[in-house]
Amino acid sequence: MKQYLLITVLFSLALSAHAASLNLVTPNLTVSQGIPFTVSVVLDPQGQNINATDGSLSFPADELELQNVYETDSVISLWMIGPRQTASGTIAWSGIAPGGFGGILGANETDLTPGRIFSAVFKPLQTGTVRIGFAHAAVLLGDGQGTPAVLSTHALNITIGQPDRAAASSANIVAADKNLPEPFNISLGRDPSIENGKWFAVWSTQDKGTGVAAYDIFESKTQMDNIPETDWRPATSPYVLNDQSLMSYVYVRAMDFAGNARVAVLAPENTAALWPNIICLSAIIIAIGGLALWLIRKKGR
User: Fold this and answer.
1) For burial by CB atoms within 10 Å, which of 74, 128, 176, 180 has the most?
2) How far is C-alpha 9 from the geometric centre of its chain's CA atoms?
């Protein structure tokens, strides 16, 4: 019996040594009531090649108000379900890392570090201790078969104290920030080592107030002044374009933590994209001209 227990313990230790992990990371475990804080979901492959992940994060909705979820610099580039609140107190996600994710190369170019899947911003509604954890989580290996990887998850206990004046001052800075991120341009690039030489867009900007929180992108065959919120897609630079013919307008939106946004646009590189608009406009002009001529002749009779 003792030998059996020893084998079981050793087997469990061997599995945990190679188990991928999903962790919750936040700058401080003690926050102030009413002052938003950020929690990031971080994936540590532990030497494995992870191809996909899905799961749900749970939090007490009566004690924490979810204010924002963003995917800037996520290791997941193809979302089946982008991280969002699907029910009260639940954030769900499902996505793929094409080619797999084995870690981010560290500064010494030898160590691999964990990567962020997404971040969520919460506002504490009352004092006390709250628990944020995983209701469900899974990761799949990039072995061509989608084999479930051994996974460990770790919850987070946050202590919420009385409102702090210094923290409130910081929150007031966010509320008072009415300035847009700095103007920026979008450029095109292509490199044989990136996505088999596909065209990609690159950009960068700064925000002197609260900082850039996220980027979104939208591609359209026609020029648009007002883009529906549902058409924006989270993006990071460089971004591989969906329209490899370069016949679309590319819009990039930079948003700061105060909710201010600036949009940059790149006109189609391939001017053939303009012909449908020109043809359509010409047809309208011809139709209006024909109608006007018909009315003039009819009046002359």
Assistant:
1) 74
2) 40
CA-wise closest residue to 235 among 260, 257, 259, 215: 215
Q: Which two tokens stand for residue 176?
A: 């008072």
pTM, 2 dp: 0.55
List the alpha helices (DSSP H) in the chain: 2-17, 165-176, 275-300
The CA-atom distances, in angstroms, between 210 and each of 148, 175, 207, 261 are 40, 9, 7, 12
Distance CA(164)–CA(172), nearest Å, equals 12
Please state, in angstroms and rounded to a whole number, the distance separating the CA atoms of residues 33 and 123.
Answer: 8
Contact 207, 255 (CB under 8 A): no
Residue-wise pLDDT tens digits, 35-65 = 888 898 999 999 899 999 999 999 999 999 9
Torsion over CA: 125, 131, 135, 138 (sign)? positive
Task: Select from 86, 77, 36, 76 the least CA-distant residue to 56.
Answer: 86
Is the torsion defined by CA of 286, 288, 289, 290 positive or negative?
A: positive
Nearest CA among 149, 152, 153 for reference residue 48: 149
pLDDT, tens digit (0-9, with 9 covering 90-100), for 139-156? 999 988 889 999 999 999
DSSP 12-59: HHHHHHT-EEEEEE-S-SEEETT--EEEEEEEE-TT--EEEEEEEEE-
d(CA 173, CA 257): 10
